[in-house]
Structures are given as structure tokens and as C-alpha cells.
Specification:
The structure holds 2 protein chains of 2 kinds. By secondary structure, chain A is mostly helical. Chain A is about 80% helix and about 0% strand. In chain A, α1 packs across α12 and α9 runs antiparallel to α12. By secondary structure, chain B is mainly alpha-helical. Classes of the chains: A mainly alpha, B mainly alpha.
Chain lengths: ~290, ~325
């Protein structure tokens, strides 16, 4: 072996070792990153569950908002949230499913559809507090009053783009053969959509609904100045109404231990509701759609 | 019920009209209904822009450019300058991105390339769960757990450790209660981390396997395959994912409102309390009495809309149709 060849060999070995070390360090760093993310998840869930469970008792579901240092629960907030989410989902699904249908079936390929699709994607990620400001200007200021209706409308506007996107995505997955078969039987396009495509997309549409519900059920910011809050149980759409997230915000920021305890209980309830709808939605998707 | 009934009659009519199939195929009513739903959606966006601009016009026209350049926020004297919340929004969002991005890339790479797939599936679900937790929960955790811990174990030791008058002191000074710009950025980072990681993971999984296999076949190490082949391959969409995370941080309200300290002063250090656009709106809107105060808050909203609209629009353009729902 000559000198230079030997040098070359050791240089090769040096390069090889360096690449292996770089690789090892890189792999360890990615592992650490994952550990950090999981640790964050664990820490948050651990606090949430321990403090939340400590705050949950039967009164949480049966009594309304207490005065400080008195016994009470979150009934008014839970009812208010359900009412507004229900209203919001009804409006959002009605418009969202129809709009998604147009995008997937009628508008496909047109300029308008491309623009709408793009703007809809932007609306999905738009800050929710801005939606709240919009609804305030639209429904609260002109009628001189905060109301459950305004809160529900804000939630509807938040869920609408999600429902639209989900509807369009699932309907696009349906094979054209289905549409052609329907047309060949003499049905018009609307009939094909309503009684064939919608039916075939049923589980996908349910998933879309669940995901948009998960999106709005934890929303706080837009409700602060649309539904305001209400310490009493209320079913009236034209009156201010409490919502779980806004009540949590109010209680958590307060100085009373009882209220903070209830805030944790409420936070746990919301988190459980959102996570279960999320998981349910994903399980349904996995079962029905082969990508 | 009515759908099913009309379906039956329509089908019958078409079957009868053998030679004249065109007319029953006309579905203008349903088509118009769908189109009007689309137009309603568009009206939402136009109405959103219109209401923000018209609501904020009073303040914007009254203060003009000084609305953006001054930081006096005084509801009593009706003087409003939005520089502090605007700067606060930008600082917290970019800090959050700085913290979250390396970790998010690490998580995505680990899940796609390194971890055994059987475990990776569960970890991916865990990461997506983290993305699904409502922001108010993050806010409460920040206020009750992170802030006290941070004040006790980071802020106080640092403040006693730095030499008075040095540049380091200028960075870490502030009320040691843990509610400051830095902790707000940390919470934001935890919030956008799973969001970015989930999109990046899907992007990395979309890299064609022959690209990876070719690179491994040449003797590349996993690090080289990821850094030189896979990440460059999804570069465009990855930037979109990051911008989407940024957009989320810019607009996030509740988590920040809990923990940023809500002061209207210009933040003087990293550990100083501050405010963001959204936290200011959330805190003051229901208590605002004067028309000018409300208008100034809506004008703030207009600024936030413009910032986030541009960010999200670029993000969606880069991501194409692959973006998340």
C-alpha cells in the first residue's frame, strides 16, 4: 500500500464516520422532538383530568351558575352551549352541504368554483374572533342586544366552511359510474345527486358534521360578544345565554376557588366532547373511505 | 319524505316521455338552491370584510396613520393607537413559530421515517388529539400551571442571576408572575405544533416511495434521505403548512388572553406583559362604551383580518388542495 492510497482510505473512513454521527444525532433529535410533543400532551391532559375530575359532581349537571362560595353547577352553560351548537349546526349543515354539492357536481371546472373553493379554504382558517365581530355588527348592534341567536349564527358561520369542504371532498370520491348509471335510468342530475350520490356519501357526510361540531363546540372568542352570557337557565333565542366556554373563561379568570373548580370541570367536559367527536369522525372515515 | 316522493314521480315522468327526455331532466330548482348556498357563503366573506371596514372606519379616519404608529390606548381620553397590540401579535406569533417549527419537523420525520409503523399510527393519533384540544384548555393550563412554574423556576432565578444593567437584564426584566410575552408564545407554540406536524407528516408520506428507495439504494443515511430528498420534494407545500400554522397563531385568542398579561404598553423585554390584537378585542369589547372605543377595536380586527388573510391565502396557494379541513 502506498502512502496516498492509505490517506484516501482513512479519509473515506472519516467521511463515513462523520455521516454516521450526523445521522445518529439527527435521529436522536427527532426522537427528542416527539418526546417533547408527547410530554406536552401528557402534561396538559394530566392536569385537565385530575383537576377536572376533582370538580365534577352531580351538581355540575343539575344546578345553574352559583354565586361565589355557594353550591352550583354548569347546567345553564351546558344547555346554552347545546342550544347554540344545535342551531349553528343546523344552519351550517343546510348551507354547507348544498354549497359543497354545487362545488362537487355543478360548478366543477368553472372559474366561480375555483374562486369559491379558495375563499372557503381561507374561511376555514380565519380567526374566529373576527367572525364574532362580524355577527356583532350584523345581529347584535342593529337589534340592541346580545342573543343566543347571534351566538348560534357565529357558530354557524364557523362550521359552514368546514361542512362545505367535507361535503365536496366526499362527493368527489363517488365514482362517475354511479352518476352515469342514474342518468341512464332517466333521472335528472338533481335526482341523481339527491338519491344516489348523497346516499352513497352518507357516512362521509356524518363525519363532516362531526368534525364541524368538534370545531365549534370549544369556540369561545366569538361568543364573548354575541351571546354574552347569562347566569340563569334560559331557552330563549332572543336573550343572552351562557355557553360552556365563555363561562369557563369567566370562572377561570375569577378569584373564587369554587368558580375555578367549576371552570376545570367545564374544561374537562368540553375537551371530552371535542375529542370523542373527533375520534368518532376519524373512525367513521376509516371505515368507509378507501383512499 | 318529500324527496323520496318527488323522486318517484320524476322517474315515472321520464320513463313515460320516451321521445322527449330533455324537459324532465331540467333540475333548475335544485341547481339554483345549491348555487344560492354558494352565494350565501360568498356573501359571508364579503359581509365580513365590509362590516369590519365600515365598523372600524370611524377610528381609522379619525386617527389616520397614527393609529398604526402610536401606542397610547386610552379609553378615557378616547385616544387610540394600536402599535402595541399589532407588534405584540407579530412577536408572539413569530416566537411561537420559532419554537414550534423545529419540533414539528422532528415529530413528522420521526413518525414517517424512523418509528415502527405500528407505533407511529398511535403516536400520530396522539398528535392529532393535541391539535383538537380547544384553545381555552390551553389557556387555562397556561394560566394555572405554566405561568406559576415559569415564574418560580425560570424567571426568578434568571433575574437574580443576571448582572444589573447588562443587555441580558434588558431581556429578562419584568413582573415575575409568568404572564408575559414569552409564556404566551410558548403556549401558542404548543398549540400550533401538532397542527403543523400533522400536515408535514401527511406531506412526507406523499413522497413517492421510489424516490426514497433510490436514495437509500445509493447508500444515503436516513438523515440524507430526509434532508436532501424528502423535505426538498415537499418544500412548497411545507412552507404552506408553516404559513397556515402562523395564521393560526396570529388569530388565536383565548389561549393568549389568559396568559399574556394584557397591558397596553409597548413590551420592553421578553418577559414583559403585553397584548395582542385578539386579546385586546376579547378583553375590552363587551366593556367598551364609547362609539370610538368600539370602532377602534373593530379597526384592530380589520388589521388582524388583513394580516391573517394574506398569510392564509399564501399558505393555501402553496398547499393547493392538500390542505387540512
Amino acid at each position: 500500500m502506498t502512502e496516498p492510497a492509505n490517506n484516501g482510505k482513512s479519509f473515506d473512513r472519516f467521511l463515513h464516520t462523520r455521516r454516521r454521527i450526523y445521522n445518529g444525532v439527527f435521529l436522536v433529535l427527532t426522537g427528542i422532538a416527539t418526546a417533547i410533543a408527547l410530554a406536552a400532551l401528557f402534561l396538559i391532559l394530566e392536569t385537565l383530568v385530575s383537576k377536572g375530575l376533582a370538580g365534577i359532581d352531580a351538581h355540575v349537571f343539575t344546578m345553574s351558575q352559583p354565586a361565589p362560595d355557594e353550591q352550583g353547577g354548569l347546567l345553564n352553560a351546558i344547555v346554552g352551549s347545546l342550544v347554540m351548537c344545535g342551531f349553528g349546526m343546523a344552519v351550517a349543515l343546510f348551507i354547507g352541504v348544498l354549497a359543497g354539492t354545487w362545488l362537487a357536481e355543478y360548478g366543477d371546472g368553472t372559474k366561480l368554483a375555483a374562486v369559491v373553493r379558495f375563499l372557503n379554504d381561507i374561511l376555514i382558517s380565519a380567526p374566529s374572533i373576527l367572525i364574532g365581530l362580524f355577527v356583532y355588527q350584523l345581529l347584535v348592534r342593529p337589534f340592541h342586544g346580545f342573543s343566543a341567536l347571534a351566538g348560534g349564527m357565529a357558530l354557524a358561520l364557523l362550521a359552514m366552511p368546514v361542512a362545505t369542504r367535507a361535503t365536496e371532498d366526499i362527493m368527489r370520491l363517488q365514482p362517475n359510474a354511479l352518476r352515469e348509471a342514474g342518468m341512464a335510468l332517466g333521472a335528472n342530475r338533481g335526482l341523481v345527486i339527491r338519491s344516489i350520490i348523497w346516499r352513497a356519501s352518507k357516512s362521509g357526510l356524518v363525519t363532516g358534521a362531526l368534525l364541524s361540531f368538534a370545531r365549534i363546540s370549544g369556540e369561545t372568542a366569538p361568543l364573548l360578544f354575541t351571546s354574552l352570557g347569562n347566569p340563569f337557565l334560559s331557552f330563549r333565542l332572543t336573550q343572552p345565554v351562557a355557553a360552556l366556554p365563555t363561562t369557563i373563561f369567566q370562572f377561570a379568570m375569577s378569584a373564587y376557588d369554587d368558580w375555578q373548580r367549576l371552570a376545570w370541570a367545564g374544561a374537562l367536559l368540553i375537551a371530552v366532547a371535542v375529542l370523542t367527536t373527533n375520534i368518532l369522525g376519524r373512525v367513521l372515515t376509516r371505515g368507509s373511505v378507501q383512499k | 319524505m318529500s324527496t323520496a316522493a318527488s323522486a318517484k314521480t320524476e322517474a315515472l315522468r321520464v320513463a313515460d316521455a320516451q321521445g322527449n327526455a330533455r324537459k324532465p331532466r331540467d333540475d333548475w330548482a335544485f341547481r339554483t338552491l345549491c348555487l344560492s348556498a354558494v352565494l350565501a357563503m360568498m356573501a359571508t366573506l364579503i359581509g365580513l370584510v365590509g362590516s369590519l371596514v365600515s365598523g372600524g372606519w370611524l377610528a381609522l379616519s379619525h386617527f389616520g396613520l397614527s393609529f398604526f404608529t402610536t401606542s397610547t390606548w386610552d379609553p378615557v381620553a378616547d385616544q387610540y393607537g394600536a402599535a402595541a397590540p399589532i407588534v405584540g401579535t407579530l412577536i408572539t406569533s413569530f416566537l411561537a413559530l420559532l419554537f414550534a417549527l423545529p419540533v414539528a419537523i422532528g415529530v413528522a420525520v420521526f413518525l414517517v421515517e424512523i418509528c415502527p409503523q405500528a407505533i407511529a399510527r398511535w403516536l400520530a393519533i396522539a398528535v392529532e388529539l393535541l391539535a383538537g384540544i380547544p384553545s381555552i384548555v390551553y389557556g387555562m393550563w397556561g394560566l394555572f400551571v405554566l405561568a406559576p412554574w415559569f415564574a418560580q423556576n425560570v424567571q426568578l432565578p434568571l433575574m437574580t442571576w443576571v448582572t444589573p444593567g447588562s443587555w441580558l437584564e434588558a431581556i429578562v426584566m419584568g413582573v415575575p408572575n409568568g404572564a408575559n410575552i414569552f409564556t404566551a408564545s410558548l403556549i401558542l407554540a404548543v398549540m400550533i405544533l401538532p397542527y403543523i406536524a400533522a400536515i408535514l407528516r401527511e406531506l412526507l408520506m406523499s413522497v413517492p416511495s421510489h424516490m426514497r428507495e433510490a436514495a437509500y439504494g445509493l447508500g444515503c443515511t436516513p438523515r440524507e434521505v430526509i434532508m436532501r430528498i424528502m423535505l426538498p420534494y415537499v418544500r412548497r407545500s411545507a412552507i404552506g403548512a408553516v404559513m397556515l400554522g402562523l395564521g393560526r397563531a396570529l388569530g388565536e385568542t383565548m389561549a393568549v388572553t389568559f396568559i399574556i398579561g394584557n397591558s397596553h404598553n409597548f413590551p420592553h423585554s421578553l418577559f414583559d406583559s403585553g397584548s395582542t390584537i385578539s386579546s385586546t378585542i376579547a378583553n375590552e369589547f363587551t366593556e367598551a362604551t364609547g362609539d370610538m372605543h368600539i370602532s377602534a377595536l373593530i379597526a384592530l380586527g380589520t388589521v388582524l383580518f388583513m394580516i391573517t388573510f394574506v398569510t392564509i391565502a399564501i399558505a393555501r396557494l402553496l398547499l393547493g388542495r392538500g390542505g387540512p379541513k
